[in-house]
Amino acid sequence: MAISPDNIRALWNVSARAYANYVAQFDMHQKTARGLVDLAGIGAGETVLDFGAGPGTATKEIVKAVGPEGRVVAYDISDEMLKHAAVQMNFDPAVKFVRGDTDEAGDKLAGFRFSSAVFSNSFFQLPAKAELIRTLRVFCPSPFKMSFSLYETVYDEPSHVRKVESDEFFGNILEVAGERGYKYGSRQERYDKLNFAALCGIFTPSGMRIDQPQVLEFDRSFDERLAFFKIPAILYEILPGVPIEEAGSIVEEAAARTKARVSQKRIVYLFKAYTVSSDPEVCACLPTGRLRITSGLILRPLDPYNLPY
């Protein structure tokens, strides 16, 4: 299957069925979506953008929140993903499905006026984040709010140091790949790492403030990780340059070699950004507290002026 890693639409079209099945089988994405909808404070009657909607996991939660008087636009680069989303939503007429790239958002979303937006596991993949936020602000009236999630692999904040777990499974993936002539010193991360200061730099010019994140922590079973690594788009990320069929074979052989089929921690950061002024010159982007981690639940950041030391 010859697909260029740069052809993101084709890659996710091929991956749509496997990804939709993965999301339906394991609940991390559903819990993340519910957390983002709650964090954004989405309410009845709103018009909400689900950017990077994928197979409709967050779309479904947003529809519940906006009720029969609300409207939802599910926007995604992949036609096949949106087909899965439409089925998931039972072709609900309150949901409009729009296929487009990030740089097409200004044209394809210009007819809408959104009060909120949700980026569930999609924000870190955007190539030009600040430009997209500025574009959305053109046709999103104040007040406007949005929520988005980042994994610990793409959020690098010194104030939150996570113990690095040994990972026999992924070590085996790299080992098998090396035996077949594909040399990787470590996991290949295609996306730039973000920290809180970088996020402020993305939102502040558009007159928005961003709060310190709330945190979800999950235990991902071995079976969940194996299903995730079998998704074609993920194979391209972890084993760049390897043909997709061979990459899948490498993962299968690595799984067979893995003796300690243990769960692994996954941390998901949930962020909220919101307008503080229609004039970017008078807006600020300030932290509101430190992080506290919980397992499967969301806790608000601690009061920054009453921190335990």
Notable characteristics:
globular, 309 residues, 8 strands, alpha/beta, disordered N terminus, 37% helix, Rossmann fold, 8-stranded mixed β-sheet
Structural class estimated from helices and strands:
alpha/beta
Write down the CATH topology. Answer: Rossmann fold
Q: Provide the helix percentage.
A: 25-40%
Q: Could you state the order of secondary-structure elements as H and E? A: HHEHEHEHEHEHHEEHHHE
The CATH class is identified as Alpha Beta
Distance between the termini: 55 Å
Mean pLDDT: 85
**Domains (count):** 1
**Share of β-strand residues:** 15-25%
Specify the CATH architecture: 3-Layer(aba) Sandwich
Q: How many strands, which pairing sense, and closed or not: the largest β-sheet?
A: 8 strands, mixed
Q: Count the strands?
A: 8
Question: Shape, please?
Answer: globular
Sequence stretches where pLDDT stays below 50 over 5 or more residues: 1-5, 280-309
**Radius of gyration from the alpha-carbon trace, in angstroms:** 20 Å
Descriptive overview:
The protein is of the alpha/beta class and 309 residues long. The chain has a single domain, classed as Vaccinia Virus protein VP39 (Rossmann fold). 37% of the residues lie in helices and 16% in strands. The protein has helices spanning 8-25, 28-40, 57-66, 79-88, 105-108, 129-138, 168-179, 196-203, 222-229, 232-238, 244-257; strands at 47-51, 71-76, 95-99, 116-119, 145-151, 208-210, 214-220, 264-275. Strands 1, 2, 3, 4, 5, 6, 7 and 8 form an eight-stranded mixed β-sheet that branches. α6 links the parallel β4 and β5. Mean pLDDT is 85; it is low at 1-5 and 280-309.
